[in-house]
Specification:
74 residues; two-stranded antiparallel ribbon; mainly alpha; 4 helices
Length: 74
């Protein structure tokens, strides 16, 4: 079973789905200005997914994605 995240509408979304959304956000970001964990959390909030910055960081680490300062390409 996957854990779930509450959405603002009251329903829940699987953490695996949230991780996939994070992966898509990171793939679509500008490599010269990658999103911080806080910005990713804000983008998810706009999609009615309310999670903390530290949860974004935890999921990002689980997916073996580097932090924004290490993803930056000059």
């Amino acid at each position: 079973f996957n854990s779930s995240i509450r959405r603002s509408g009251g329903d829940a979304i699987a953490s695996a789905s949230v991780q996939e959304k994070i992966r898509l956000i990171i793939q679509a970001e500008n490599p010269k200005k990658p999103y911080s964990d806080d910005k990713i959390a804000q983008l998810l909030k706009e999609d009615s997914i309310h999670i903390a910055r530290r949860t974004v960081a935890k999921y990002r680490e689980m997916m073996k994605v580097l932090p924004s300062n290490k993803r930056k390409q000059i």
